[in-house]
Specification:
alpha/beta, two-stranded antiparallel sheet, binds N-carbamoyl-L-aspartate, 11 strands, binds zinc ion, 37% helix, 12 helices
């Protein structure tokens, strides 16, 4: 329920990994030229569909989103709803993450649009980090809750909100205490890793993502939420591919690629927490229910069989280093 598919040849490279594991995905709109209108979303959706037909036999439904800007019009929300393919509008506070420069500078400017979304029942998907450069990077999620999210939730009690890729105990507590209209996605990497993975024994750029990995207490709070069976918490990989050269750079890009092994990694986490029976709800039911989509009828089969993740994948003339590169997996998906 949170995926970066990119575009063009990069999309061609990563799409098969997702389609092998997921029947659909909420597709993020932060392309280099962001998907700010329904027209652009329709065009992006048809590029995804063409890539799917080029790879015969791949069945997959892209659930499209719009990118919110200071200038988004209420009429655009009506168009989005009428399109039938747009399921959410993504709020990137300007400057917080990859391709967020044209994001929102002050959410108050968007209140009329949020009101239109509330009326049209289109979900607001939030990148929950405050865009104040003075705030410590490890505290940006917490400040976003206090200074932004609380205000949105109070003004628009009927707006459905997905707090995306939550990383802190504060976010878990906020979602638990909120109304049924507020849910959250949790990535595999935030469940598997804390910030030591990124910074201990040298700097490991392939573990750099946003929101940045946090302390162990936060990881434990996320695991507790994910395996709790609470339907407010559901799967969203935030798989975000960047080429090896742009990650291993003096100003490296944020994003972790996990589509090649996503469901298998979640299975590992749930098994370690002795909660494998809770995986299906988290992965397949709660997100669909939140978005008002029918639950999938087909199934995949996971088997306990080890395999090694390749060191890198081909990525549009460059290479891509996946999560768990060169190391072994416990669960395998049956073809
Ligand atoms: C994402 C990307 O690269 O598009 N990066 C990331 O670290 N998660 C953007 C995002 O979701 O913040
Ligand atoms: Zn993302």
């Amino acid at each position: 329920m949170h995926l970066h598919l990119r575009d063009g040849e990069q999309m061609q490279a990563v799409l098969p990994d997702t389609v092998k594991r997921f029947a659909r995905a909420i597709v993020m709109p932060n392309l280099q030229s962001p998907v700010i209108t329904t027209e652009l979303a329709l065009a992006y959706s048809s590029r995804i569909s063409s890539a799917l037909t080029a790879n015969i036999g791949m069945k997959f439904e892209p659930l499209m989103t719009l990118y919110l800007t200071d200038n988004t019009k209420c009429s655009e929300i009506k168009k989005a709803k009428a399109s039938g393919i747009i399921h959410g509008v993504k709020f990137y506070p300007a400057g917080t993450t990859t391709n967020s420069d044209t994001g929102v500078t002050d959410i108050a400017k968007c209140f009329p649009v949020l009101e239109a979304m509330e009326q049209e029942n289109i979900a607001l998907l939030v990148h929950g980090e405050i865009n104040d450069p003075k705030i410590d990077i490890f505290d940006k999620e917490k400040y976003f809750i206090d200074r932004v999210l609380v205000t949105i939730a109070q003004h628009f009690p009927n707006l459905r909100i997905v707090f995306e890729h939550i990383t802190t105990k504060e976010a878990v507590d906020f979602v638990k205490e909120s109304s049924e209209n507020i849910g959250a996605t949790i990535t595999a990497h935030h469940l598997l890793l804390n910030r030591n993975a990124m910074l201990q024994g040298g700097i490991h750029p392939h573990y750099y993502c946003l929101p940045v990995l946090k302390r162990e207490i936060h990881r434990l709070a996320l695991i507790e939420a994910a395996v709790s069976g609470d339907q407010k918490f559901f799967l969203g990989t935030d798989s975000a591919p960047h080429s090896k050269s742009t990650k291993e750079s003096d100003c490296g890009c944020a994003g972790i690629y996990s589509s090649h092994a996503a469901i298998e990694l979640y299975a590992e986490i749930f098994e370690q927490a002795d909660a494998l029976e809770k995986l299906e709800g988290f992965a397949s039911f709660f997100g669909a229910d939140f978005y008002g989509l029918p639950r999938n009828r087909e199934s995949i089969t996971l088997t306990k069989e080890s395999w090694n993740v390749p060191m890198e994948f081909e990525f549009a003339g460059e290479t891509l280093v996946p999560l768990r590169a060169g190391r072994s997996m416990i669960w395998k998906i049956l073809d």
